[in-house]
Structures are given as structure tokens and as C-alpha cells.
Write a structure and sequence with these properties.
The complex is a heterodimer.
Chain A (H helix, E strand, L loop, with lengths): L1 H13 L3 E5 L3 H12 L4 E5 L2 H10 L4 E5 L7 H11 L4 E6 L4 H9 L4 E4 L4 H26 L6 H10 L3 E8 L2 E13 L2 E6 L1 H10 L1 E5 L6 E10 L4 E10 L18 E6 L2 E10 L3 E7 L11 E7 L10 H6 L2 E14 L2 E8 L3 H27 L2
Parallel strand pairs in A: 1-2, 1-3, 3-4, 4-5
Antiparallel strand pairs in A: 6-7, 6-9, 7-8, 8-11, 9-10, 10-11, 12-13, 12-15, 13-14, 14-17, 15-16, 16-17
Helix pairs in contact in A: 1-6, 3-4
Chain B lengths: L2 H8 L6 H11 L5 H9 L2 H11 L13 H8 L1 H16 L11 H18 L5 H13 L2 H12 L3 H10 L3 H9 L3 H11 L4 H9 L12 H12 L8 H13 L4 H10 L8
């Protein structure tokens, strides 16, 4: 009874797939072909590795069933070539050889399963059921993921957890983003346990938390650190608020400037010293003392002159080199009160290829310095 | 294999998806540099490492290399990818070489030196051969982090260091203490992470070159020689260099050139 049920299930799954069957024995070819054609959508047949490879290249093949010992090109050689074309195709070996070395060699080249000769129906049913079920599960997961777009982000986290899928953890060290993948180990109410790279654990410890990000979620999750198990590369976090993500891409990497950095806001005929908190190739965040009595508002055009030690190395014009500074034209985006006597201003840099080029180089240099600093202070202990 | 090591193997952290993107990029022979710059550029650690190496005295480029695209131009696609991948892998595990007497901060320098040694020694070798081995050269010592950590937990690190002094073969001492050599363990780690089989096999066999097995494939022997000279216990020590040169001779590799390159590298900080 079990066999009848299994055949029914197998027929249901296999009817959507096309199989390539490669076998040099004509008698066995006929026998197995008869069985396969009752199950699969279509059965392609070849008598040796060369023909098998040719069929694979020209036909739509979802699964390969192959003998190992064949003339012209043996099964292993053919499978290697097939895997170069489609590394994900499922391959089942049909062979008289059951010695460990042959099996290991087969698995080394990506064979999914093995049917020992002499072949019989129960063996084939059991093996195909297993292999095709795995294929079907993988395909369903892809469809499910595509349907997830409208799902609630909390449910998406559950989904990621249930399917052992990775998410990203985002942290910052003085502006430099440090991002690594993580696997959800468990979720229990507000708490979530993740496994991630060692360096990420260090920066989570530094920031006392992290941000969870997944391309499947429309928002990120801010999390607070509970504890870290360095031995098992695990971190326990308390989930906080969901929020729209900041940035991960290079154009928006922001860095704290180095100590040699000097900056002035050029306004009317004055040069007012400002403190730059961070900068990217697109924007500058700076602090301006109220005491300077400068009222800035959104959309104002301003000029900021920047000077720093590395300027000489950054391929700037002779004129700029003589002045030992560059002048950046910006548009004010927003002004907020930071402390009692200070404004915090975000200004976007107006498009200037030359300036952005210089800033890009500066950001790269600064990233190197900051990451070295982070490693020295936190990793090499 | 030591039970604690088996446990550590099961407790490995996941590696970044970027690593697999880069491996696929390499495997498929892709040439889309814009795409490559995006993958590496969006990862600060990878970017930093590539730029740092490009500006390192070891590589001796004339002008300072200020952007990732410039570094890519100078290093080429495959070498850049290998640097980026090795940085991501390196950051996944806790670097611990205390049992071998090397500091974590010295490990990066040693890694660069081993790469430089390999490239200069085989500068006349075909590019495909060299590019195939860069990743194994960067990754073959992963196992040592786990071994060192394990020995410290079992309070056998001092005994281990003593045996390293007494015996000439690091892999032999490793097998005595934990049942596996560092290269074999590195291969198992890479396999757990789903690295391509060819890289796993190359790394796996590095410590088997001397065991009388049939495995004397040139690529494996080359990496084994680099490993011997750049071992973290006594990097660039005369005894290990001598052994490596003999190995090179036995297998008709250019030992004269190898000696010249070793002598030309700035290794005084490692000579104890």
C-alpha cells in the first residue's frame, strides 16, 4: 500500500519535470525508460556521456539519471561538464559500483543521490521522491519569497527564522558602516538570538546594539544588546522599534573627519569656524555656534572651505593646493537645535565632479584609518 | 579529531552573502567591473583591505592608490576578489594564534608577506595557475585559530608550544594534540561554509604533501612550501626555509628563485 501511495505522490510531483537518462546498456535503457515515461513530463535518452552532455545542452532538463561506466565519456566526466553549465541541476547516479571511493567521488562532484544496480522500482521511487521533493521545496520557497512583499515585517522575521535565512546586521564605527550577515537562531517574544561574524560581535558590543536589515523587509529593526556569547558567535538582542532604513551603499558612507580637519563657513565676508561631525561625498553635517549670529534655513546656498592634512595627496588643483583648502558649495537641507548654544546643520553638496572625487578619496582614506583604529582597540586585545 | 574542535566546527558563524557573490563572479569569469566595485564597495571592511594592500610597501605601486577602481585596475579582478573574500573570512572568526606564539596584529602582515612571496617566486608562471592559488594561500591558516583557541581552553597551549620547539613538523604536532592538522581543519571550515570543492581540496591536501601519499600536484606543493616558510610559529626561520627549499628541489620547482625572493622580503620583524 505504501508503494502505491508513494507512486501516486511521485507521479504528482514528477509530471512537471523533464529528465535526462544516460545509460549505455540498451536493455536497461528500454526497461528504465518505460518506467520513467510513466512519471515524468518528458524523458530524454542518451547512450553515453558525449551524447548525454549534448542532450543536456540542447534540451530543457530538470534532473539527470546516469550510469557511471560508459564508453566515450564516463558518468563522472559528463556530470562535471553538466555542473559547469548548471551547478544546481540535480543528478542521480545509477551504478553497479557501491564502493566508498566511487560514492565519495560522486558526491564530490555534486551528485545528489545514488541508485544501486540491479535497479528495481521501489529503489527508484524512493530516490526520486526524495530528490524531487527537495527540488519542489526549493522552488516553493522562491515563490513564497516573491509573495512576501506585502507581509508584515514582524512576520517576515518569523519567516526568516523558520527558514534559517540570513539577515544583515548594520553597525557603525565613527561613521563607517560595518555590515555582516547573521542567521537567526531563535526568537522568543521581544528577544532574538543571532549568530554572526566575530567582528560584528565586537562592534555590536561597542555600540551596545545593532540594526537588523533584510531586503524582504520594508523597515529595519533597531535592537538593544542583551549579551554576547563569543564562543558560539552568538548575540542576544532585544527588538526595538521598526524604522525606515538609512543607507548601506558607498555613495552615502559618512565618516567622522580626522583631527587635522579644519572647516569654515564662508558667509558674506566672514569665515566662521564650524565643527564638521561627519561627511560623505554627498553631504556634510556640521555644528554652528549660535553665538556667530548666522541664521541658516533650508535651501540656503552656502560655501564651506575644508582643509586637512591629506589634501596634498588628493590630486587637487594647483590653486587649491596653494590655498591648502578646497571650497565646497552646498545647499542647506535642515537646521536643528543641537544643544542650547549650537545648531546642527545638514548640507547637501552641490554637484561637482571634482569635489566629489576629492571627498571620495578622503572618505576611503578615513575609512582605512577608522577600521584600523577599531581593530587595534577592539580586536587585537 | 578532538571533541571540542568538532563542537567548534558546528558553532561557526555564517559568512557574508557578498563572499558567495564574489565566488560566483570569479567562477563565471564575469568581467562587469562596475558590478564588482559595487559588491566590494558596499562593504567597508573589504574596501579598506583592498586599498590598504594596494598602498602597502610590499606591493610597491609608484603612486598612492586612492580609489577602489584604481586598486582593481592594478590588482586585476581575480586578485582583488581574493583579497576581499579573505578579509571577510578573516573577520568572521576570532583571530587567535597565541598557542603558536604569534599576535593577532602580526597575522595580517604575515598573510601579506606570504602572498608577496608566492607572487614574486612564481612571477613567470601562467596567470591562471597563480590566480587559482591566491585564495588557498590566504585561507589555509584558518584552522590554526580554532586549534589555538581549543588548546588554550584545554590548557595545553604551553605544552603545544614546547612540542613545536622540539619537533620540526607543525602539522605533526597539531595532529598529535588535536587529531587534525590546521590545513585539514581549514578545509573542513571552508566546506562547512560551502566553498567550492576545488579550493577545499587544495587546502585539505597542503599538509599531506610529505606523508608519502600520491598527492604531489604542483599547486598543492607550491602552497605547502609557502605555508612552511610563512608558518606563524617561526616565520621565515632558517630551518623551515631550508626544508621548503629541499621540497622545492625534490619536485623540480625553482628553489634558487625562491631563496632570492625570501632574501629580498622585509622580514626582519619576524626573525626572532
Amino acid at each position: 500500500m505504501e508503494n502505491i501511495e508513494s507512486i501516486t505522490v511521485l507521479k504528482e510531483i514528477a509530471k512537471e519535470y523533464e529528465i535526462l537518462f544516460v545509460e549505455d546498456s540498451i536493455a536497461l535503457q528500454k526497461q528504465v525508460y518505460k518506467f520513467l515515461s510513466k512519471l515524468f513530463k518528458r524523458v530524454h535518452v542518451a547512450s553515453d556521456g558525449v551524447e548525454g552532455l549534448e542532450q543536456f545542452k540542447t534540451q530543457k532538463v530538470d534532473l539527470v539519471l546516469s550510469d557511471l561506466t560508459m564508453p566515450r565519456m564516463n558518468g563522472h566526466e559528463m556530470i562535471r561538464e553538466i555542473k559547469k553549465i548548471d551547478p544546481d541541476v540535480e543528478v542521480v547516479i545509477l551504478s553497479a559500483h557501491s564502493d566508498t571511493e566511487t560514492l565519495m567521488k560522486s558526491f564530490h562532484i555534486g551528485v545528489s543521490d545514488f541508485i544501486a544496480k540491479p535497479v528495481n522500482a521501489p529503489k527508484m521511487i524512493a530516490t526520486f521522491l526524495k530528490v524531487l521533493s527537495n527540488m519542489r521545496r526549493r522552488e516553493e520557497k522562491i515563490i513564497e519569497l516573491n509573495e512576501l512583499n506585502n507581509k508584515d515585517d514582524e512576520e517576515i522575521l518569523e519567516f526568516l527564522n523558520e527558514n534559517s535565512m540570513k539577515i544583515d546586521l548594520i553597525n557603525y564605527y565613527r561613521g563607517v558602516p560595518i555590515i555582516n550577515g547573521a542567521k537567526i537562531i531563535s526568537m522568543d517574544g521581544d528577544e532574538i538570538v543571532l549568530k554572526t561574524a566575530y567582528i560584528q560581535l565586537l562592534v555590536i558590543s561597542y555600540e551596545n546594539g545593532t540594526i537588523l536589515d533584510s531586503s524582504l523587509m520594508s523597515e529595519n529593526v533597531e535592537c538593544e544588546l542583551i549579551n554576547i556569547d563569543y564562543d558560539n558567535y552568538e548575540v542576544r538582542l532585544k527588538k526595538g522599534k521598526f524604522f525606515y532604513p538609512p543607507f548601506k551603499n558607498r555613495a552615502q558612507v559618512r565618516v567622522e573627519p580626522d583631527s587635522s580637519f579644519k572647516s569654515f563657513l564662508q558667509i558674506d565676508d566672514r569665515a566662521v569656524e564650524i565643527e564638521i561631525k561627519d561627511l560623505s561625498i554627498n553631504a556634510i553635517l556640521f555644528r554652528l555656534k549660535k553665538l556667530e549670529k548666522i541664521e541658516l534655513k533650508s535651501h540656503d546656498s552656502i560655501k564651506i572651505s575644508l582643509s586637512f592634512d591629506k589634501l596634498e595627496r588628493l590630486s587637487i588643483s594647483k590653486q587649491e593646493l596653494e590655498k591648502k583648502s578646497i571650497v565646497v558649495e552646498c545647499s542647506v537641507y535642515k537646521v536643528e537645535e543641537d544643544e542650547e548654544d549650537v545648531y546642527k546643520v545638514v548640507a547637501f553638496i552641490k554637484n561637482s565632479h571634482n569635489i566629489q572625487d576629492i571627498l571620495q578619496r578622503y572618505v576611503y582614506f578615513r575609512e582605512i584609518e577608522l577600521i584600523e583604529e577599531f581593530k587595534k582597540e577592539h580586536e587585537y586585545r | 579529531m578532538n571533541k571540542l574542535i568538532q563542537k567548534r566546527l558546528k558553532a561557526l558563524p555564517p559568512i557574508s552573502d557578498n563572499v558567495f557573490e564574489l565566488l560566483n563572479f570569479q567562477k563565471n569569469g564575469e568581467m562587469d567591473t562596475k558590478k564588482l566595485l559595487k559588491i566590494i564597495g558596499d562593504d567597508s571592511m573589504m574596501t579598506t583591505r583592498v586599498l590598504k594592500m594596494a598602498n602597502s610597501k610590499l606591493f610597491g605601486f609608484q603612486n598612492s592608490v586612492e580609489t577602489l577602481s584604481k586598486a582593481l585596475e592594478l590588482f586585476g579582478i581575480n586578485f582583488t576578489i581574493s583579497i576581499a573574500i579573505s578579509e571577510s573570512i578573516r573577520n568572521s572568526l576570532k583571530i587567535d594564534l597565541d598557542a603558536y606564539g604569534l599576535l593577532a596584529c602580526e597575522f595580517d602582515e604575515l598573510s601579506e608577506l606570504s602572498c608577496k612571496l608566492f607572487l614574486r617566486w612564481l612571477k613567470d608562471e601562467n596567470i591562471e595557475f597563480k590566480e587559482r592559488l591566491i585564495l588557498p594561500i590566504f585561507l589555509h591558516e584558518l584552522g590554526k585559530f580554532v586549534i589555538s583557541d581549543t588548546l588554550k581552553r584545554e590548557q595545553k597551549d604551553k605544552q603545544f608550544l614546547f612540542q613545536l620547539e622540539e619537533q620540526n613538523s607543525i602539522s605533526k604536532v597539531e595532529r598529535e594534540f588535536v587529531g587534525v592538522s590546521s590545513s585539514e581543519l581549514s578545509a573542513l571550515i571552508l566546506k562547512e561554509w560551502g566553498f567550492p570543492q576545488n579550493i577545499v581540496e587544495t587546502v585539505f591536501n597542503i599538509d599531506r604533501v610529505d606523508d608519502g601519499s600520491k598527492n604531489k600536484e604542483k599547486s598543492i606543493v607550491v602552497v605547502s612550501i609557502i605555508k612552511e616558510i610563512c608558518n606563524p610559529f617561526k616565520p621565515f626561520d632558517e630551518v623551515y626555509i631550508k626544508d621548503a627549499l629541499e621540497k622545492a628541489d625534490t619536485l623540480n620547482l625553482d628553489s634558487k628563485r625562491l631563496k632570492e625572493v625570501v632574501d629580498s622580503l622585509p622580514i626582519s620583524s619576524f626573525r626572532k
